[in-house]
Amino acid sequence: MFEKRNLGPPLTERKSTCDVTGNAGGSLKTESTDMERKSASDFPPEVLKLFDSYVHGWMSRRDFLDRAQKYAVGGFTAAAMLESLRPNYAFAQQVPKDDPRIKTEYLTYPSPQGSGTMRGYYARPANAAGKLPGVVVIHENRGLNPYIEDVARRLAVANFLAFAPDALTPAGGYPGDEEKAAQLFGQLDAGKRTEDLMAAYTMLKARPECTGKVGAVGFCFGGTTVNQMAVRFSDLAAAVPFYGGQPSAADAAKIKAPLMLHYAALDERIDAGWPAYEAALKANGVKYQMFMYPNTNHGFHNDTTPRYDEAAAKLAWSRTLAFLNENLRT
Question: Closest Cα to residue 215, out of 309, 303, 133?
Fold first, then answer.
């Protein structure tokens, strides 16, 4: 069942919950030179769908430009739309790298079933009193970019140990260019890549400053991976996938971790898998909460592109922090 709530402008929501008893409840470069933040409403919906295909590697740049040109108006050409849609990481700096409240560093960790040795970004409170719970942060299909590092710092400010692995480590790490990152990502061995990211959970859980309670948060590809983590690790304390692909019904039956799932209402591709996933979660008594954010696009939490929706992103993040606190600190 769904409970509809009207929170008033600019955001409404649809929420579905179920507890264990079953009760309802150019190239794509790193930064844009245009510092004006555009919103999804500045683009035809069809262009946003084309861009989704482009960033996920299902469409070439040339194909995007050819197909988007029919929606061009005045000086807002297909090339200009692509330029405006690419990430601008200056927008994502919510917590500065040198914020005195936190400590950050890059760590290597073993991945014996994957690529051998991996690397990731570790952020933690500067003046922690005792051990703290951990959160693994899984990136999109472009590696450990500045947006994901900032998400890790946001978690550290919230008094968590946050570790964000870089799946591109075997390819030399995130290259600083989004199009190159996507190309490298597509060349990775998918099986080893999965093991490399799963090993980050094992590493963080074993850190001496960690309480042993670890959750996971992921976005897009990372959301899919967090769902897989929930399948893999029976002791995962909490899982928060943002617009992630869903596991099979057979795999969903293995999940023990409580879930908080965030979806964008305009993300038809990912949302199509939700009804079957929900049925599997209910059938197996998995504790979950699902939030569907109306009028939002895939990637709405990523504050580097026009698909970002500030109201939805802030609401989803406040819910995420509350959920992690509830499940990792008790």
Answer: 133
